[in-house]
Amino acid sequence: MSAGTGTFSIDGKTIDLAVREGTIGPSVVDIAPLYKNAGMFTYDPGFTSTASCESKITYIDGDEGVLLYRGYPIEQLAEHGDFLETCYLLLYGELPTASQKADFDYRVTRHTMVHEQMTRFFQGFRRDAHPMAILVASVGALSAFYHDSTDISDPQQRMIASMRMIAKVPTLAAMAYKYSIGQPFMYPKNNLDYTSNFLHMCFGVPCEEYVPNPVLARAMDRIFILHADHEQNASTSTVRLAGSSGANPFACIAAGVACLWGPAHGGANEAALKMLEEIGTPDRIPEFIARAKDKNDPFRLMGFGHRVYKNYDPRAKIMQRTTHEVLNELGIKDDPLLDVAMELERIALHDEYFIEKKLYPNIDFYSGITLKAMGFPTSMFTVLFALARTVGWIAQWKEMIEDPSQKIGRPRQLYTGAPQRDYTPIAQRS
Ligand code: SDX
């Protein structure tokens, strides 16, 4: 929607720039004509004030700690729905009716097996390969097996590719885990729901029947809901940029997995748990708080801070409750890591540095404690994040492909390198 015009004046020139407003949230200034009319670029490394696209999928209010998927608050979706309902909502834009949900669950369930030759693909990795290295490779490798769903101009192929990734990434994630511990791969079981099936593929063995714990399955499913999408974060922006070149959907999602791996992004859950283990006991917290505040020390409190949330990450609150739920179900009365985490949060939230910089726990702060208690090694934490975020990446990729204004993403730069100069023959170089 148009919201009038802004003007930009420089060197005696004044340029009108259209202002557009969204349904909720900040309006935008359309700077596309700037280079043509003023011969200048805008400059915003890290995109702190830049909207890269128009989207209808997820809305975040960082000051109020609000997260909406297609307008529905994350708290309500996590409380009342399941992950596949959230997948349907993110993909189609509306909550499914009972028959739509049953059909969607059926379609996903029957795409969970991967091509049998994928099992040989895994054999090339060392057993100690990081599961994220395996996931990046195996998601990209899906494009070698499913040529009938790589034509991005065909809506039906786009949807088939989307369903395949939602269905198969859990299978690949479980295979990466099984491979790392030297256990046989477990085939999906169609009589289990999505998340119970994932737990079965991770923790089941051929020698005995695996009965998923319903409390743990519900907690895992809720964790997937919390991680499903998050506006234009680094990995989603990576998927959009890769998709803007026309790359096939499997390659685009593999690019998102690669970006998510970084410790500043999805790798923070693994880094946060390692940090809590390094702190070890509450009496060592002040030492780490001091390091986090020391400009000369690159150390940061992992699981704290966020580009958008300058209030408590709403997902972290639900995550914290889920942590207590899982520990209670497992009879873990006194988890030293949880003690350190809760004391660290209490101290940090009363410390002037964190208050002034508006640094709060984010979703990665408590997730690691929960996942460790459920039996996952830290190396699997970001894999679980990627599993859940696959639907968000796909929904955003589809929206970008279907956007009539879409064109290849190609940012410019502020060049501060050498001016043009002539080649010097090597004999004349000193
Ligand atoms: C995710 O974008 C998303 O939506 C991501 C995500 C999603 O769902 O997709 O929400 C998932 O990635 C959550 C974030 C996980 N990362 C971490 O927990 C790593 C630790 N956090 C930081 O690295 C940092 O907070 C970021 C990367 C999350 C945000 O960085 P910004 O927005 O670029 O902020 P910044 O680095 O400019 O920091 C602002 C100030 C700096 O101090 P000054 O230079 O202004 O003096 O705050 C300080 C920073 O030094 N700061 C921290 C800190 N985070 C920021 N100081 C100590 N500990 C921290 N964790």
From TrEMBL:
Q: In which pathway does it act?
A: Carbohydrate metabolism; tricarboxylic acid cycle; isocitrate from oxaloacetate: step 1/2
Q: Record's superkingdom?
A: Bacteria
What biological-process terms (Gene Ontology) are attached? tricarboxylic acid cycle
Residues of the active site: 306, 364
| UniProt key word Transferase | yes
Gene Ontology cellular component annotations, sorted alphabetically: cytoplasm
Q: Which InterPro entries match?
A: Citrate_synth-like_lrg_a-sub, Citrate_synth-like_sm_a-sub, Citrate_synthase, Citrate_synthase_AS, Citrate_synthase_bac-typ, Citrate_synthase_sf, Citrate_synthase_typ-I
Reactions catalysed, as given in the entry: oxaloacetate + acetyl-CoA + H2O = citrate + CoA + H(+)
Q: Which GO terms describe its molecular function?
A: citrate synthase activity
UniProt KW keywords: Transferase, Tricarboxylic acid cycle
- NCBIfam families on file: cit_synth_I (TIGR01798), PRK05614.1 (NF004126)
Q: Which PANTHER family match?
A: CITRATE SYNTHASE
For this chain, the family text in UniProt reads: Belongs to the citrate synthase family.
What is the official name of this protein in its record? Citrate synthase
In which organism is this protein found?
A: Chelatococcus daeguensis
